Amino acid sequence: MALPGRTLTAGNVNVHAAARELRLAQPSVSQRIRELETMLRTRLFIRRGPRISLTAEGHALIEYADRLLGTAGEMIERFSTRDPLKGMLRLGLNESFALICLPDLLRRLEQRYPGIKTSVFVGDTGIVSKKLDDQELDIAVVSEPAVGPHVRLEPIGKNKLGWFARADFDVARGVLSPSDLCQFHLIVSPPTAQLHATVTQWFADAGAVPLRVSTCNSLSVTILTILHGTAIGLVPVRVMQDELERRRVRLIPVSPEVRAHRVSICYQISEFGPGLKVLVDLTKELVAQHKLFV
């Protein structure tokens, strides 16, 4: 059994004082010291009557004891307050929010909660929804979420979608139909993404079957594929705004338009409190500031 770290980090190396602090008999403290030295296979203390002093290895142990105490304190605060911002915040995001708003979100969180740690997962609707359902995420920004009753949804807008090609793509007609697009090489998200279901339905409603469809689970890579002229891609319009302004891509007019996706902030109901409300409000503020959704 290890000697509790606080008696070391406090610099208290008087066995009797340590016993009083721990509310133990002095022999029990001495026994703990021996057990700790046996477990670590090293000598931590030099005994001089009732007083002891730390060896070099004992001083090295203090650093580890400090870490353990700090982690224990974080753990107690996290679970006593049930506030995910006190500890490790598990954050799920769709790629649109991640590409445009995430840097600002992390910066603002750091200002409000110095030292906050985040675990960010970026993925499509199916994967992020499952992680929310399995309670592997505290909060997420998701398109068309499919989650259970233990997760609360707050709508924050719609993610408008569009077909994009490289700027030199020649549109023979002013507005293309699903049948017109079928002749081109297309790139879309994989089946786990809501976008895949949306585009599949878009073609099906028109009775059209595209001849060549590639999939990619990375929005950033899909954008590169479009920029290189390898394929025409269906992606959120907002993430292509800079490329449109630089005239590196063109938005292909289509009829009917592809249905926009409803986007929500989703979070575990059991964890909602003042801290999580701050994060929800901040997320909404950034969405509005960056004009991310319509």
Tell me what the structure shows:
This protein has 294 residues and is an alpha/beta fold. The chain has three domains: 6-81, Arc Repressor Mutant, subunit A, CATH 1.10.10.10; 88-158 and 261-289, 3-Layer(aba) Sandwich (D-Maltodextrin-Binding Protein, domain 2); 161-252, D-Maltodextrin-Binding Protein, domain 2. It has helices at 6-9, 15-22, 26-40, 56-81, 95-100, 102-112, 125-133, 178-181, 194-205, 219-227, 241-245, 274-289, and strands spanning 45-48, 51-54, 88-93, 117-122, 139-143, 151-159, 161-166, 185-188, 212-215, 232-236, 249-252, 261-268. The protein has a five-stranded mixed sheet, sandwiched between helices. The longest helix has 26 residues, at 56-81. It starts with 5 loop residues before the first helix and ends in a 5-residue tail after the last helix.
Write the layout of secondary structure elements.
Blueprint: H1 6-9, H2 15-22, H3 26-40, E1 45-48, E2 51-54, H4 56-81, E3 88-93, H5 95-100, H6 102-112, E4 117-122, H7 125-133, E5 139-143, E6 151-159, E7 161-166, H8 178-181, E8 185-188, H9 194-205, E9 212-215, H10 219-227, E10 232-236, H11 241-245, E11 249-252, E12 261-268, H12 274-289
Parallel strand pairs: 3-4, 3-5, 8-9, 8-10
Antiparallel strand pairs: 1-2, 5-12, 6-12, 7-10, 7-11
Rounded mean pLDDT is 87
Per CATH, which architecture of the largest domain?
A: 3-Layer(aba) Sandwich
Specify the helix fraction band.
40-55%
Tell me the radius of gyration. 28 Å
Per CATH, the superfamily of the largest domain is: Periplasmic binding protein-like II
* Name of the CATH class of the largest domain: Alpha Beta
Structural class: alpha/beta
Distance between the termini: 60 Å
The secondary-structure element order is HHHEEHEHHEHEEEHEHEHEHEEH
- C-alpha geometry: elongated
Numbering strands along the chain, what is their spatial order in the largest sheet? 4-3-5-12-6
What would the CATH topology of the largest domain be? D-Maltodextrin-Binding Protein, domain 2
Give the percentage of residues in beta strands.
15-25%
Are there runs of 5+ residues with pLDDT below 50, and where? 1-6, 8-12
Number of strands: 12
Q: So how many helices?
A: 12
Main beta sheet, described? Answer: 5 strands, mixed
Domain count: the total is 3
